[in-house]
Amino acid sequence: MRTHESEEMYLETILLLREKRAIVRSIDLAEELGYAKSSVSRAVNLLLKKGYITIDGGGDIALTQSGHQKAAGIYERHLVITKALMTVGADKSLAEENACRIEHVISNEMFELLKKRFSD
Protein backbone atom coordinates (compact mmCIF):
# COMPACT_ATOMS: atom_id res chain seq x y z
CA MET A 1 0.00 0.00 0.00
CA ARG A 2 1.17 3.53 -0.78
CA THR A 3 1.59 6.14 1.96
CA HIS A 4 2.03 9.90 2.42
CA GLU A 5 -1.44 10.92 1.31
CA SER A 6 -1.11 14.43 2.73
CA GLU A 7 2.25 14.95 1.01
CA GLU A 8 0.77 13.78 -2.26
CA MET A 9 -2.26 16.07 -1.91
CA TYR A 10 -0.01 19.08 -1.44
CA LEU A 11 2.17 18.21 -4.43
CA GLU A 12 -0.80 17.59 -6.69
CA THR A 13 -2.42 20.84 -5.55
CA ILE A 14 0.75 22.83 -6.24
CA LEU A 15 0.93 21.29 -9.71
CA LEU A 16 -2.69 22.18 -10.50
CA LEU A 17 -2.46 25.70 -9.04
CA ARG A 18 0.68 26.31 -11.14
CA GLU A 19 -1.37 25.58 -14.25
CA LYS A 20 -3.83 28.33 -13.27
CA ARG A 21 -1.53 31.04 -11.95
CA ALA A 22 2.03 32.28 -12.19
CA ILE A 23 2.63 32.46 -8.43
CA VAL A 24 1.61 29.91 -5.80
CA ARG A 25 1.95 30.79 -2.13
CA SER A 26 1.12 28.96 1.08
CA ILE A 27 -2.08 30.97 1.43
CA ASP A 28 -3.21 29.66 -1.97
CA LEU A 29 -2.70 26.10 -0.77
CA ALA A 30 -4.59 26.80 2.45
CA GLU A 31 -7.54 28.25 0.52
CA GLU A 32 -7.57 25.50 -2.12
CA LEU A 33 -7.35 22.63 0.37
CA GLY A 34 -9.37 24.24 3.17
CA TYR A 35 -6.54 23.74 5.68
CA ALA A 36 -5.31 26.01 8.45
CA LYS A 37 -2.36 28.22 7.57
CA SER A 38 -0.32 26.57 10.35
CA SER A 39 -0.90 23.10 8.86
CA VAL A 40 0.10 24.32 5.41
CA SER A 41 3.22 25.99 6.79
CA ARG A 42 4.31 22.74 8.44
CA ALA A 43 3.64 20.70 5.29
CA VAL A 44 5.42 23.20 3.05
CA ASN A 45 8.48 23.04 5.29
CA LEU A 46 8.48 19.24 5.09
CA LEU A 47 8.22 19.33 1.29
CA LEU A 48 11.07 21.83 1.21
CA LYS A 49 13.26 19.58 3.39
CA LYS A 50 12.49 16.60 1.13
CA GLY A 51 13.56 18.60 -1.92
CA TYR A 52 10.17 18.54 -3.64
CA ILE A 53 9.71 22.31 -3.70
CA THR A 54 11.59 25.59 -3.61
CA ILE A 55 10.36 28.87 -2.13
CA ASP A 56 11.67 32.20 -3.33
CA GLY A 57 12.00 35.39 -1.29
CA GLY A 58 8.47 36.42 -2.18
CA GLY A 59 6.97 33.16 -0.96
CA ASP A 60 6.40 31.68 -4.42
CA ILE A 61 6.36 27.89 -4.22
CA ALA A 62 7.71 25.94 -7.21
CA LEU A 63 8.09 22.23 -7.73
CA THR A 64 11.60 20.89 -8.17
CA GLN A 65 12.20 18.30 -10.88
CA SER A 66 11.62 15.46 -8.41
CA GLY A 67 8.58 17.24 -6.96
CA HIS A 68 7.12 17.78 -10.41
CA GLN A 69 7.72 14.16 -11.35
CA LYS A 70 5.99 12.92 -8.20
CA ALA A 71 3.09 15.39 -8.57
CA ALA A 72 2.59 14.46 -12.24
CA GLY A 73 2.47 10.77 -11.30
CA ILE A 74 -0.16 11.44 -8.65
CA TYR A 75 -2.23 13.50 -11.07
CA GLU A 76 -1.95 10.76 -13.69
CA ARG A 77 -3.39 8.33 -11.15
CA HIS A 78 -6.22 10.75 -10.51
CA LEU A 79 -7.07 11.06 -14.21
CA VAL A 80 -6.92 7.32 -14.94
CA ILE A 81 -8.95 6.36 -11.88
CA THR A 82 -11.55 9.04 -12.63
CA LYS A 83 -11.89 7.73 -16.16
CA ALA A 84 -12.21 4.12 -14.92
CA LEU A 85 -14.93 5.08 -12.46
CA MET A 86 -16.84 7.04 -15.08
CA THR A 87 -16.60 4.07 -17.44
CA VAL A 88 -18.45 1.90 -14.90
CA GLY A 89 -21.23 4.48 -14.59
CA ALA A 90 -20.18 7.09 -12.02
CA ASP A 91 -20.91 10.69 -12.91
CA LYS A 92 -17.91 13.01 -13.14
CA SER A 93 -18.37 14.52 -9.68
CA LEU A 94 -18.65 11.15 -7.93
CA ALA A 95 -15.75 9.73 -9.94
CA GLU A 96 -13.52 12.73 -9.11
CA GLU A 97 -14.37 12.58 -5.41
CA ASN A 98 -13.57 8.88 -5.16
CA ALA A 99 -10.47 9.10 -7.35
CA CYS A 100 -9.08 11.66 -4.90
CA ARG A 101 -9.16 9.03 -2.18
CA ILE A 102 -8.22 5.96 -4.22
CA GLU A 103 -5.17 7.55 -5.91
CA HIS A 104 -3.28 7.56 -2.60
CA VAL A 105 -3.83 3.94 -1.61
CA ILE A 106 -3.95 1.96 -4.85
CA SER A 107 -1.00 -0.35 -5.37
CA ASN A 108 1.36 0.24 -8.27
CA GLU A 109 0.37 -3.12 -9.75
CA MET A 110 -3.34 -2.32 -9.69
CA PHE A 111 -2.76 1.17 -11.08
CA GLU A 112 -0.76 -0.24 -13.98
CA LEU A 113 -3.66 -2.58 -14.81
CA LEU A 114 -6.11 0.34 -14.79
CA LYS A 115 -3.71 2.44 -16.80
CA LYS A 116 -3.45 -0.23 -19.51
CA ARG A 117 -7.22 -0.44 -19.73
CA PHE A 118 -8.29 3.19 -19.32
CA SER A 119 -5.49 5.42 -20.61
CA ASP A 120 -6.00 7.22 -23.90
Distance between the termini: 26 Å
What profile does the largest beta sheet have? 2 strands, antiparallel
Query: Helix amount, in percent?
Result: 55-70%
Beta percentage is: 5-15%
Unreliable residue runs:
none
Spatial arrangement of strands, main beta sheet: 1-2
In angstroms, what is the radius of gyration? 15 Å
Q: How much is the average pLDDT?
A: 93
Shape: elongated
Number of helices: 6
- Helix/strand/pairing class, anyone? mainly alpha
N-to-C SSE string, H for helix and E for strand: HHHEEHHH
Tally of strands: 2
Structure description:
It is built from six helices and two strands; from the N terminus they run αααββααα. With 120 residues, it is mainly alpha-helical. It has a two-stranded antiparallel ribbon with strand order 1-2. A hairpin with a 5-residue loop joins strand 1 and strand 2 (61-63). It is elongated.
In short:
This protein has 120 residues and is mostly helical. The protein has six helices and two strands; from the N terminus they run H-H-H-E-E-H-H-H.
Fold topology:
Layout: H1 5-20, H2 26-33, H3 37-49, E1 53-55, E2 61-63, H4 65-87, H5 92-102, H6 108-118
Helix pairs in contact: 1-2, 1-4, 2-3, 4-5, 4-6
Features:
120 residues; mainly alpha; two-stranded antiparallel sheet; 6 helices; 2 strands; elongated
